[in-house]
Write a structure and sequence with these properties.
Mean pLDDT of chain A: 91
Distance between the termini of chain A: 64 Å
Low-confidence stretches of chain B: none
CATH architecture of chain B: Up-down Bundle
Largest sheet of chain B: none
CATH class of chain B: Mainly Alpha
Structural class of chain B: mainly alpha
CATH superfamily of chain A: Fumarate reductase/succinate dehydrogenase, transmembrane subunit
Distance between the termini of chain B: 47 Å
Largest interface: A-B, 20 and 21 residues
Order of helices and strands of chain A: HHHHHHH
CATH superfamily of chain B: Fumarate reductase/succinate dehydrogenase, transmembrane subunit
Radius of gyration of chain A: 21 Å
Low-confidence stretches of chain A: none
Helix content of chain B: over 70%
Number of helices of chain B: 4
Shape of chain B: elongated
Structural class of chain A: mainly alpha
Number of strands of chain B: 0
Largest sheet of chain A: none
CATH class of chain A: Mainly Alpha
CATH topology of chain B: 3 helical TM bundles of succinate and fumarate reductases
CATH topology of chain A: 3 helical TM bundles of succinate and fumarate reductases
Order of helices and strands of chain B: HHHH
Number of helices of chain A: 7
Helix content of chain A: over 70%
Oligomer: heterodimer
Number of domains of chain A: 1
Shape of chain A: elongated
Strand content of chain A: under 5%
Chain lengths: ~140, ~120
Amino acid sequence: MVDANQEVKSAKPVYRNIGLAQLVKYRLPWAGKVSILHRISGAVLFLMLPFILYIFDQSLASELSYQNFQAITGNVLVKIICLGLIWCFLHHFCAGIRYLLLDLEIGVEKHEANRSAIVVFCIGVALTAVVGLKLFGLY
Amino acid sequence: MPIYQIGPKRLVVGAHYGLKEWIIQRITAIVMVVFTVVLLVDYCITGSATYEGWAGLFSNQFMKLLTLVTFISLFYHAWIGIRDIWMDYIKPVSIRLTLQVFSVLYLVACAAYAVQILWKV
């Protein structure tokens, strides 16, 4: 019995102080994927703050700057950047609400937490698609 | 402050350390959720996006203050998150401290810009 257990254990790869080469192969569970994407999306939003504030400034300062705002956001490349930021915001928002619920001990069971992670990821992508279609003028 | 929390015996890990940041991150998150809902409701009521409608919304003193509170919440929230990233991945104290100082200065500059934007309208 003890031998059998040890065999099962040794069959699994052991990671201690995981390195970059191992990191690529490591299959994270959904909760882990949502977690690292939460961190990455937050970091991207942090780095893009000056751009976001500039766009906000141009949209608000005057009629003239508003036209400038429309010209900037009319550019396809800027639209793609904005869509990326919108996904970052939406994913960060949804994953953040998941964490607030987890803090309230809602959905902390393993299978529930796994399911909510998948739901959060899908809602983030779906809402980004909805905003993206609007952004590119498809409705 | 108990005597064992001073000098080289200062408690740097353990229960309650970081609780303040943890709770501030959650409170500021809720502030941003509320602001998002306010913007969404306004968008649903006014429908079309025009300069008059958009600028009119932010010319309201209450909206200015709510927006500024949200921005300050955002910057404080970002500080805690970025601080966590530097603490997790950057081990040499000198590089970490430098990055943390620049992060704070960056966020303070963003806050000043936000005030300028809001009080121009």
